[in-house]
TrEMBL record:
It comes from the Bacteria. The lineage of its organism: Bacteria, Pseudomonadati, Bacteroidota, Chitinophagia, Chitinophagales. A divalent metal cation binds at residues 46, 134, 138. This is DUF664 domain-containing protein. It comes from Flaviaesturariibacter flavus. Keywords: Metal-binding.
Amino acid sequence: MILEALLGEFEHEVNNTRKLLAAIPADKTGFKVTDFGWTLGQLAQHIATIYSWYAGTLTQDEYDISAAGDHRPDPADIAATRALFEQNVEKARAALKSVQEEDLLRPWTMTSHGRTIVPPTPRLQVARGFLFNHLYHHRGELVMYLRAAGARVPGLYGPTYEDSHRKGTS
């Protein structure tokens, strides 16, 4: 039952992420909100990459993120980032479908170069926080980047403010 709910949420939110990535104009990938932050292309690439972490999180008891070997295309190439997203979504979906309900209560640990980053934590808690909520956080940033760059923001949970006022509804 929990897995069914996670998979349903996953599928719904993949579509919302896809809408946001599709809204990124190719000529805006270098846009930065601040001098010290990521570019729009780097943020999009990070979002696409998070989906590659599902397999290691859901199917391994210990995930060494330093050994993940995530391939990342040039962040200025939004088409390549969208393709990376689609590839990683397929792997994430397969991982979600392969896990058993009882596995969600088993402890999971993240390491990097032999150092513990996340101590043993129930896999379900990690899936919610490190995967799902982490994505939602960065998607919120992406919405803000799109608006600041002057790009149209798609509605994710209904029409955007701009859409509802453009059509004369309020």
